[in-house]
Write a structure and sequence with these properties.
The structure is a homodimer.
Chain A (H helix, E strand, L loop, with lengths): L2 H15 L1 E3 H8 L3 H13 L3 E4 L2 E4 L5 H5 L9 H11 L8 E4 L3 H13 L3 E5 L2 H7 L5 E5 L2 E4 L4 E3 L1 H7 L4 E6 L3 E3 L3 E4 L2 H12 L1 E7 L11 E4 L6 E3 L6 H9 L4 E2 L3
Parallel strand pairs in A: 4-5, 4-9, 5-6, 9-12, 12-14, 14-15
Antiparallel strand pairs in A: 1-3, 2-3, 7-8, 10-11, 11-13
Chain A binds a DNA duplex (30 and 30 nucleotides) through helix 3.
Chain lengths: ~260, ~260
Amino acid sequence: MLQEHRHQKIEAYLKQQKAVKASELATLLNVSIDTVRRDLEVLEKKGLLKRVHGGAILKQNKDNVLNKLFNEREVNHLEKKQEVASLAIELIEEGQAIALNGGTTTIEIAKVLVEKFKRLTIITNDLRILGILGANKNFNVILTGGFYNPEEYTLYGKQCEEVLSHFNIDIALITVNALSIEHGLTDFRIHEVGVIQTILSRTKYKVVVADSSKFETSSYITICPLKNIDLIVTDSSLPFHIAEEYDRHNIRTLSPS
Amino acid sequence: MLQEHRHQKIEAYLKQQKAVKASELATLLNVSIDTVRRDLEVLEKKGLLKRVHGGAILKQNKDNVLNKLFNEREVNHLEKKQEVASLAIELIEEGQAIALNGGTTTIEIAKVLVEKFKRLTIITNDLRILGILGANKNFNVILTGGFYNPEEYTLYGKQCEEVLSHFNIDIALITVNALSIEHGLTDFRIHEVGVIQTILSRTKYKVVVADSSKFETSSYITICPLKNIDLIVTDSSLPFHIAEEYDRHNIRTLSPS
DNA sequence: CTTTTTTTTGCATTGTTTTGCATTTTTATA
DNA sequence: TATAAAAATGCAAAACAATGCAAAAAAAAG
């Protein structure tokens, strides 16, 4: 049996049973217990389960049902992202033109926007965001054009940036993979970097939305230094010493009071 | 057994089994495992499956945004549209740049394109077409930007036409709501009209794809006279007297022989 | 219909990943 | 703390994948 297939079977079995013994899976799947352990290790890294002595237990995410709609790269830190989203929309005023780039945090923002606002203009390169906001008649939703990245459900490239470059954006809510004082905003999504840079160049009020786990990490490609950013919105788990250090560097951060 | 036949068999088997071992396919199809691997490689590029160690697993994108757009409204004259689609793609050559506007006939064309071509550049304003072609690594798919029309799953407006206006299109396959000698191409989709006009202005070879039911009908908004069109592709049910009359007016039509 | 060209296929070689076993270390519980 | 069960670790065998190449099969050209 294929490894991936085995993983699917374990996942299905676990969802049903909530907890499984490794030895049980070994006989069930006709492989050695070592292989089962390695499988469980992989699935744990995906955030699907928690390994315990003897086997594993299902890690239930509250919003699993909701996440199913968007799926793929599993949404960890979901609750933190929701916290960030709720805080970030406080910065927005009715009628403004907003840019949201591609990412799971901005998706959470889009969900909150639908609830809280009557009239907005939103430009995005993320089809999942379009899916959330597009049906809403009160919002003016503009999708950038461009090449399609089916892994991320986003658009990128010359056409994308061309459309963006004709916009005057009141407030940009940007999500990136990593940020640090030393390296600034960084990301591994090679196509997304140009999009973010273009958005920033067209925006008056530049806001980065990032859950606390992204602070003081860095990724391969540099987007811009942190001094170019007006505000970083994060969640309540940001360690005090980091917040302090950012303050010392004159980088404004905002977390739930 | 022919390569294409083998690919179809693999596809069918995989859809049933969800996951297959390469060795299993080799015995099943009576070819070496190397050939199976090469087959899987091709099918992976088409976005149909994901290769894993030992074989491949079906890529079922049930719950992504784009696939949510499908079904819904049932298509009338589906068989006729498929007939038109199969005929229309005969006009296309490997490597060309093609424009497909929004509509159910162009959706059928997109489905056939995946099967028959290796390398194409396609620009469209229809998200359903993006859903069909987007996962295919062999195709360069460009989505126009613009405002989103959730009724039609299409994009329109200044941004949309701006992106289109930078393209040099080899062949445009245009679907409209109605066409007649007297009124030319007409449509009721107010936003789509501008998109079609822009596409036509950027295209060398202008082809209208229309099932026979659309002939000698008309709709509210005029797009252009028929003399601006190089060819109209239709199905086998077009009444002879209409075909004759179009001929008399020097309007070329093409239907299955 | 035959010859030439192109494509496809299977095989051999080499490199990589996965797996099960043996051994040591850790953990749970009496 | 003692003990058994489970987990981690290192390792070698097996399964699998990538590459280059030559023969075979199709397709194209004459």
